[in-house]
Amino acid sequence: MTKYGFKLIKEDYIEDLKGSCLIYEHTSGAKLCNLKNDDENKVFYIAFRTPPENDCGIPHIIEHSVLCGSKKFCVKDPFNELSKSSLNTYLNAVTFKDKTVYPVASTNDKDFFNLISVYMDAVFNPLIGEKKEIFMQEGIHIHKEKDKEPCFKGVVYNEMKGSYSDPERLLDKYIFRMIFPEDYYRYDSGGVPEDIRKLTYEQFMDFYKRHYTPQNSYIYFYGDADIDEYMEFIDREYLSKCEKTDYIPPMPSENVSVTETFFRGKYPLAEDDGRSSYFTANFVAGKSTDYERCEGLDILSYILAGNSSSPLTAALVKNGICDNVVCWSSSSIYNVVFTIMAENADTERFDDFKQIVEDTIKDILENGFDKELVESTLSALEFSVREADFGSTPKGLIYGFSMASSWMNGGEAKPSFEMIKTFESIKNKAKDGYFEQLLKEMAETKAAYVVMDPDTSLNDSDSENKELEEVYSAFTDEYKEKVEKETEALLSYQSEPEDPEEIAKIPYVDISEISEDIKFDSCEEEDGVIATEIDTDGISYLRLMFDTSSIPMDKLAMLGVFNIILGEAKAGDLTYERLPIEINMNIGSFDTGLSAFNLEGNKVYRVYDINARFITEKAEKVFALLKKIILETEFDDKDDIRKILQEAKTGIENSLLNSGHETVMNRSLSYISKSACYGEKTSGVEVYDLIKNILDNYDEGFDKFRNELISIRDTVFVKNGMRIHIAAEKDDIDKVKGHIKALKEALKEGTGESYDIVLPEIKKEAFTTDGMVAYNGKAANYVEIGYEYDGSLSVLKTIINREFLWNTVRIKGGAYGCGLGITRNGNMFMYSYRDPNIGYTYDAYNSIGDFIRSFECDKKLMDRYIIGTISVMDRPKSKAVRAKEALMKYILGITYEMSLKDRKSILTADIEKIKRFDKLFDEVAKMDYICTVGGRDLVDKSGMNFEKVVPLIK
Which of 141, 153, 293, 690 could form a Cys-Cys staple with 136, CB 3.0–4.6 A? Predict the structure, then answer.
């Protein structure tokens, strides 16, 4: 059967997703997969095989650039226009190692069609061939304004400078160079900064023309969309019109074997901060076209190093080789690579690492895995497979990404959609040594060992400056003049206002399609138990909350350390190694944390959280386990506690460095918000500093440390300080309530006094790193300035993010990301991500008031901003998120009526309401509640006069 040039090749029914998988091929050579089911959250993507030909990052730069205007939608940034005026549930583009994918999702049929029409025109008819400025802006160029020093600039370039500040990115580069010396996987499709600097516009355009063709395209639909309508549109407007070419990108090597077995490299440190080496053992472990094997390898990685009871973790950490062990399989590429990594490893002990890995694998092959370890791992992962909670990412997209690895390399699409069936197959095979066999087959191949050591003599910014100086000084005066003119043309292009007629061509849904009503999950509280009825398919979402107001300010960081240890250390008869097995066996998801809520009267409700998701039938075992963790956790084993802290230290270092935007947001907010201050004191930089201090003085200070942990436990876990939230179906709520009562009866009454949160005095600080980019945060509280929350503030946030910060900080400034956040409680914050600037970005934050005064728009354009604002609010939420939001609104006293009022004020926002906030931002501009995380050179040259400048990682 053929429709609109698409011939049906194969059709299968997918029981797991209650739908059909249909595979088509178009006369142009384009391939199409349609997973048709009744999910209203529809997903589309078009993907191209884009194996890199060097390390210049061309696939990545094209991914950014094609979304900067097309023939039908001739505006500078259709992606941004869609972001502010679409009902999308997902909108992005992703560069993988061998493919580039352009996905969108929406629950609205008209919006879904609009998104597809813009994306299809972007990939097949982009303006990149007519506008070199797009390449300069998104990729790389030498930026030279008159009377200013030249510099390298480009959004992707700055993104990758930030990415390569992470030692693990360097590890990844060298691992793939070793394993694939003759294959294109040896290159980084994202781009290596020093190679991006060598890229030319001609190379960029040549790659695009060869790879973005129908015969190299793969189209995916998921959900309840009418596929006939889209087939007709795609055939008529694009596939049948594109010129046919003979070029097909090369397929990956069929047979790959490790030849070079050892490489030792270095990663740069600005100063000795105590970080050490990374050791890895890497194996070629299979093909991505074998879906079951890929899933098996993922599970194997959890068994080998998922927690303290895992054999590789136990062996390597116990022997003092490293602080933490991580395993993963790179199944998004054709030849799957399985990696074992030791983090923060002792530089001198690589030979011991290698021997222990080999001995541990040998022992497993001789004696098998611990059966309970395998069973508990399978139990926890099965819960995740069946719950299918992927956060804000549509599950149809997760399935589509998984399927692409096989489908785009010549394999079948169907198996990737049969997650439950595949998991059941693996679970049955596990009884007969399935994981041992996987490990055996992997161990029989050669391992490629890659090591990265820290080196304080390396400085990437010096290398960049030296290269720029050499390149620019070699230019003739005529060519230097050309560079200046191109820079001037780029700045002019970036500053040109969009043509209103072209903007009007960007399709969007009519505001009349937006419902004035809201979905609202309510809570009811009785005897300290807050209940939310949600159809959860037999899963209970439990949250135990213990009031922590009896913990004084100077002990909040220790409370954060306590949180790291609880649920990891020995609890009663459950040892450090045994506890994670019991948790995985009975609880689908378990975690602890600290939360704070700003209440009326400048009060803060601050709690210690214990969260558990579980099958309701297991409630009795779950509560027995929770009771043991709460009441019987022991803090006496010095070795176990040390391991927990060392692993936590490494994890926090990675988080602080790789999520710098979150660090600066949380830190800047902590200067003005009691709830944010509580969060920063219990989980931020101060917790990291405390852990480091504890480890540096561990033996002599252990007794005092242990006693402080016991004191916190006895102070926090009391009957009169506990509230419980349960989200489940009504009958399941009633079942769980009986167990809650028994838990409360086991707790004693609390007697501690209550302490207030005192805000810090330092309000302008910077943390230096080894990186070449910065993250800049600024915070304020609009209630303290004299304003109240109104829904039009949410619309204003959309306008500022998409019209001002995006254009000023990202487009002109070259930062990879930026944003403004405004919350109902009065907090507001601005941030930038992988930003080459510091002073420039803060100047941008401080000029928002001027932007608001000059901002104009008609009703049609305002409707777009309103739609974009509502879109974020109306995205489908997982049951876990619904439970969390219901509790938050209940604690904050946000009712259905209040939420409805907020929505109406969003829907009725207009230019007059927006403009009245200019003075608010003028006041914010005068404030210095700011925090920067950035490379030392950037901080030193920023001219910001920070009150405090210290290394982030000490």
Answer: 141
One-letter identity of residue 171: L
716 has pLDDT over 80 = yes
Residue 588, classified by CB atoms within 10 Å of its CB into exposed (0-12), middle (13-18) or buried (19+), is: buried
State pTM to two decimals: 0.94
Residue 270 has pLDDT above 90, yes or no: no
List the beta bridge partners of residue 220.
33, 45
Query: CA–CA separation, 590 vs 253, rounded Å?
Result: 42
Sequence-ordered list of residues with C-beta below 8 angstroms from that of 254, at least 6 positions apart, any chain: none
What distance lies between CA 766 and its chain's CA centroid?
24
The answer to which of 212-216, 273-277, 732-736 has the lowest mean pLDDT is 273-277
C-alpha to C-alpha distance for 306 and 369, rounded to whole angstroms: 14
Secondary element (H or E) of residue 478: helix 477-495
Nearest alpha-carbon partner for 451 in 349, 299, 366:
349
Q: In this predicted model, what pLDDT tens digit does every residue of 393-406 receive, in sequence order?
A: 999 999 999 999 99
Of 735, 600, 580, whose CA–CA distance to 647 is shortest?
A: 580
pLDDT tens across 105-138, in order? 999 999 999 999 999 999 999 999 999 999 999 9
Query: d(Cα 552, Cα 560) in Å, to the nearest integer?
Result: 13
Cα-based torsion angle of the residue sequence 745, 751, 754, 760 in order, rounded to the nearest 10 degrees:
-90
Q: Mind giving me the DSSP string for 752-790?
A: PPP------S--EEEEEES-SSEEEEEEEEHHHHT----
Q: How many residues does the chain have?
A: 954
Distance, CA of 276 to CA of 452 (rounded, Å): 9
Q: Which of 121, 131, 73, 119 is nearest to 92 (CA)?
A: 119
Secondary structure letter of residue 475 according to DSSP: S
Secondary element (H or E) of residue 170: helix 167-179
Kindly report the backbone phi and psi dihedral angles of residue 790, in degrees, each rounded to the nearest multiple of 5, phi listed first: -145, 145
Please report, to the nearest 10 degrees, the dihedral formed by the alpha carbons of residues 709, 571, 641, 581 taken in order. Answer: -140
Angle of the 556-565 helix axis to the 638-658 helix axis, nearest 10: 110
How would DSSP label each residue in 443-469? HTSPPEEEEEEEETT--HHHHHHHHHH
Dist CA 681 CA 883 (whole Å): 26
Closest CA to 660 of 802, 780, 772: 772
Structure tokens at 142: 């030498």
Residue, of 601 and 4, whose pLDDT is higher: 4
User: pLDDT digit string (tens) for 784-843?
Assistant: 999 999 999 999 999 999 999 999 999 999 999 999 999 988 999 999 999 999 999 999
List the one residue out of 563, 569, 595, 593 whose CA is nearest residue 583: 569
Q: Quick one: DSSP state of residue 588?
A: S
User: What is the per-residue pLDDT across 200-247, written as a single tens digit (0 to 9) for each?
Assistant: 999 999 999 999 999 999 999 999 999 999 999 999 999 999 887 889
Dihedral angle sign, alpha carbons of residues 683, 685, 690, 691? positive
* Closest-CA residue to 208 (of 132, 103, 295, 278): 132
CA distance 909 to 925: 24
φ, ψ for residue 611, nearest 5 deg: -110, 135
- Number of neighbouring beta carbons within 10 Å of residue 901: 13
Query: Residues 530-551: what's their mean pLDDT?
Result: 95
Cβ neighbours around 363 below 10 Å, total: 12
Query: What does pLDDT average to over the chain?
Result: 94
